[in-house]
């Protein structure tokens, strides 16, 4: 399977390739880790401004599931890091802006062992990931105004929860509370408040004799679903948490919950929606819904969400990556489409690639101009669509969907082809 396809199996194989398996697809030589460019200056990049009327606050929480052993680390409880993003009356300025990544996480992400290189081709040591800033104010009080819809965000395989910050901040600026989830020991790295840095176990698994890639991916998906359902359980308790920023707990409307995710996170969104009725609507951003056949068998394995379908609204957003596209070209998407009774739609972003729905679309062009990403890798990861148009279209379609199904406001963008977004091909 090719690196540029969006099968989670291909991503797993490629993601572990440059972490120690010679000759696997997508591998590239690691640059000398001198901590910077040849001139000693690291590349820097910034996220685009949110478009909604509200300033954005954010806070991070450490959660421990004392009723579940960690599937990747038996004998210890499952621990997660999440962040909440929400409207606030206090805009971020200068040093008040929240970090994009914690320093230890940023260092690992940008090293020869992190997914900055593996998934996106950023040369090790050439980018100052710790200097990236979004537009949210850390631990700001929530904006008064009653309960707000909640949207969960799950990143792609290996990606940290921060890799969708531009989209997440935009939703929060439009009045949503967004919860981003790190899937510990699958994500490239997760930084905990006590200073621990949990790095991915996947590189160490690849190359093991008799490894069943399909089984690893099914385990990953189940772990992600269990993580998400645990986070949903914890959101109820947050209403009584005195340590949250003022007003945040009271703003959570847990009767209006949606979920969006990219790649494996998109798979996670619709599978969790299938398994848990608390999620009322979901968006899959370019995440295939099939695995390699069980135990090395030929063909593909369809998860229960594809076999059963969904009875609630969902949106599929595809790219023009190899092995991607609309539901007609993918067995999992096609099965989900045929078996679902809830409202559903499918759009494809012309000129895009697998990374186009992530922060790669905003950050990588800036890094490429500074020599930290090659032009070839840039095209492979985000295609040739104008970055500003890709970001604008992604934000508009995601917001239109959740406005329609969580707020009851229909702007009719998803009724069919839209003249203001010719880049989006509406599939029937």
UniProtKB/TrEMBL annotation:
Signal sequence residues: 1-29
Record-level Gene Ontology MF annotations: 1-alkyl-2-acetylglycerophosphocholine esterase activity
Keyword Membrane assigned: no
Keywords: Hydrolase, Lipid degradation, Lipid metabolism, Signal
GO biological process, one term: lipid catabolic process
SUPFAM superfamilies per record: alpha/beta-Hydrolases
Listed InterPro entries: AB_hydrolase_fold (IPR029058)
Top-level lineage group: Bacteria
Family annotation (Gene3D superfamilies): alpha/beta hydrolase (3.40.50.1820)
Protein name: Esterase
